[in-house]
Specification:
The protein is an alpha/beta fold. The chain folds into two domains: 136 residues, Aspartate Aminotransferase, domain 1, CATH 3.90.1150.10; 229 residues, Type I PLP-dependent aspartate aminotransferase-like (Major domain) (Aspartate Aminotransferase, domain 2), CATH 3.40.640.10. Helices cover 42% and strands 13% of the residues. It has 14 helices and twelve strands. The strands form three sheets. Strands 2-8-7-6-5-3-4 form a seven-stranded mixed β-sheet, sandwiched between helices. It has a three-stranded antiparallel β-sheet with strand order 9-12-11. Helix 5 packs parallel to helix 11. It is globular, with a radius of gyration of 21 Å.
Length: 393
């Protein structure tokens, strides 16, 4: 017999996958230019020039060394370069020996959870949240508890306090947020840290904060994203270069352990063990070296800001209620009926491919990825108008 849980995860198609697969079929049937696909957060702007330049230079060297194994945790020089970049930005006091280079952010989160969870431990996730948090947690024998957000999509601290309990082992946050585009304020992170410190004292156990940060640099109308590790000692940073450098297919990121974490040496050893157990060893050696040369560079995000402003203004002019996206490249808007999945199914009538909020831990909203061709945004507005008219006859 195959493991029942693995079969369930394999057979279950989440909303994002369903919309993507439907979109692929429709584009083949009627042409991609006739489908308004807002389903997937795939960067639509080029990688910085320095990325391609680094690749071109590196492949001139010793091919055997370039493509050979590195240490399981990643090249020490790469970890040192990333630590320096983070310290220059946030003054965190990190050192390279607290980093584990990973195949993107997903593996970072999976490793962090596997490293610290015992069977039955609870992980709090703040809605709306990336659906794979549930899979990663359950695969590590943990239990997910969902915390609903405030109306402004900052953390609802009363709901968070109510969810905290003796079995709470970790809290996952994602800022800038997928799917809402919300960025947690410095005040929010300070309050979260104070609550978690108080709970640690009350239960006499460490509660880990896992920060999912693939959109960290992708913010608008602010200098930088506040970082939770500045305020809470027991923090893991999980990061991917996918979005800031427009290289999602290269699968390169990292996990960082706070230098002030309780038992940081033992925790880092557990990270090494979890990475080994999950098979996440020796991430792509070529792109480790690319990152060493280019860390701190990013794509031209101004194009996303223009898309955001055009899309938000267009939808609001029609009458849609939109969350103000301050980061990432997603717009979260209210569906025109309580059942978000039914609304997104209806939107397909006009070739609008939207993702319902059901998979993100709440209902009543839909997500749009605006990392798309700008002409498509303009062309899709009449379709959104027709969809609106269907609900307001």
């Amino acid at each position: 017999m195959l493991p029942e849980q693995m079969l369930a995860w394999g057979y279950t198609r989440n909303c994002i996958r369903e919309v993507m697969e439907y979109g692929t079929i429709r584009k083949q049937e009627i042409g991609a230019e006739n489908v308004y696909d807002y389903s997937i957060g795939n960067p639509s702007i080029p990688a910085p020039d320095c990325v391609n330049e680094a690749i071109a230079d590196l492949i001139k060297g010793d091919s055997v060394a370039l493509h050979g194994y590195t240490t399981a945790a990643g090249l020490p020089s790469v970890r040192d370069a990333i630590a320096k970049n983070l310290n220059d930005t946030y003054d965190l006091g990190l050192t390279g020996d607290l980093f584990y280079i990973t195949c993107g952010c997903a593996s970072s989160i999976a490793i962090a959870l596997r490293a610290v969870l015992f069977p039955g431990d609870e992980v709090l996730v703040n809605a709306p949240f990336f659906p794979e948090y549930r899979v990663f947690t359950e695969a590590s024998r943990g239990v997910v508890r969902v915390v609903p957000p405030r109306d402004d999509f900052q953390i609802d601290f009363d709901a968070l306090k109510a969810a905290l309990g003796p079995k709470t082992k970790a809290v996952i946050i994602n800022s800038p947020n997928n799917p809402s585009g919300m960025v947690y304020s410095e005040e929010t992170l300070k309050e979260l840290a104070a609550i978690l410190r108080e709970h640690e004292k009350a239960i006499g156990e460490t509660v880990y904060l896992i920060t999912d940060e693939p959109y960290r640099e992708l913010v608008y109308d602010m200098d930088k994203t506040p970082n939770a590790m500045c305020y809470y000692d027991d923090t893991f940073i999980c990061y991917s270069f996918s979005k800031c450098m427009s290289i999602p297919g290269e699968r390169i990121g990292y996990l960082a352990v706070s230098p002030r974490m309780h038992d940081k040496t033992a925790v880092y050893a557990a990270v090494l063990g979890a990475g080994r157990a999950l098979g996440y060893i020796n991430p792509p050696s070529l792109f480790q070296r690319v990152i060493e040369r280019t860390v701190g560079a990013h794509s031209d995000f101004s194009q996303y800001k223009i898309n955001r402003d055009i899309l938000t203004a267009g939808l609001r002019k029609i009458g849609y209620e939109c969350v103000d996206p301050r980061g990432a490249f997603y717009l979260f808007a209210k569906a025109l009926e309580p059942d978000a999945k039914a609304f997104c199914e209806h939107a397909k009538k006009y070739e609008l491919l939207l993702v319902p909020s059901n998979d993100f831990g709440m209902t009543g909203y839909f997500r749009m990825a605006y990392c798309v061709n700008r002409d498509m945004i303009a062309k899709s507005m009449p379709a959104f108008q027709k969809l609106w008219d269907d609900y307001h006859k």
